[in-house]
Design a protein that fits this description.
Layout (H helix, E strand, L loop, with lengths): L1 E6 L4 H10 L16 E3 L5 E6 L4 H6 L5 E5 H7 L4 E5 L5 E8 L14 E5 L2 H10 L4 E5 L6 H5 L4 E6 L3 H5 L2 E10 L1 E5 L1 H6 L4 H13 L1
Parallel strand pairs: 1-3, 1-4, 7-8, 7-9
Antiparallel strand pairs: 2-3, 4-11, 5-11, 6-9, 6-10
Length: about 210
């Protein structure tokens, strides 16, 4: 039986729609009263695991799921040992550097050496500033990183931005984009090479939907 890891949160609805288009209905995950964490499709061909977005590549890397859907941002941040098979083109957002609207820093290179940047995406932030040859202290936060500049704990933040509404409401402005991010289809490398549970067949069906 094919096992897929589906992320909770922003990508959930589009992920379920995609699998419905290839014949797997995991729509029960959208029911707010439903507490199931795994669902077997009515065709008894596939099983879906509902997991945190950050855990999707873990389940795939360790072989508990053959396929998964995950944001490109997490692939760059976590660098998991998985096969990146396709850009699914939904869930568009961007990884950005942002500062307070009143900040004197208008470009990332204007930040002071050894200045502080708050982020959940520590590796992405480190790599970005390393490529700029700018020594920066990364402060790891797991909640509202926007509070970094607001409270004065950091000069800037690195975070995912979708509409930019949250930044604007908190008096922040983007000064650079690290990269664009969308949902990606990933697979366990060995299972994919061995075509376990007809992975290639289902991947081809998904790719045809993307380009149609």
């Amino acid at each position: 039986m094919l096992t897929v890891a589906i992320p909770k949160g922003a990508l959930l609805s589009d992920s379920i729609k995609l699998f419905q288009e290839i014949g797997f209905d995991f729509g029960a995950f959208l029911d707010p009263q439903n507490r199931q964490l795994q669902i077997i499709d009515s065709t008894n061909t596939a099983k879906a695991l509902l997991v945190r977005a950050t855990d999707v590549p873990v389940y795939v890397e360790y072989g508990q799921a053959q396929l998964g859907i995950v944001g490109y941002d997490l692939l760059l941040e976590k660098n998991p040992v998985v096969a990146d098979l396709a850009d699914l083109t939904f869930g568009h957002c961007r990884m950005s550097v942002a500062v307070s609207q009143s900040s004197p820093y208008k470009r990332p290179v204007d930040l002071p050496p050894h200045g502080k940047v708050a982020s959940k995406f520590v590796n992405c932030a480190k790599n970005y500033f390393h490529n700029l040859n700018l020594p920066i202290e990364i402060i790891t936060l797991y909640g509202s990183v926007e509070l970094g500049p607001i409270t004065g704990m950091s000069e800037a933040i690195v975070d995912l931005v979708s509409t930019g509404k949250t930044l604007k409401q908190n008096g922040l402005v983007e000064i650079d984009t690290l990269f664009e991010s969308t949902a990606h289809l990933i697979a366990h490398p060995l299972n994919y090479r061995l075509n376990c549970d007809q992975i290639n067949y289902w991947v081809d069906k998904i790719r045809k939907i993307i380009i149609s």
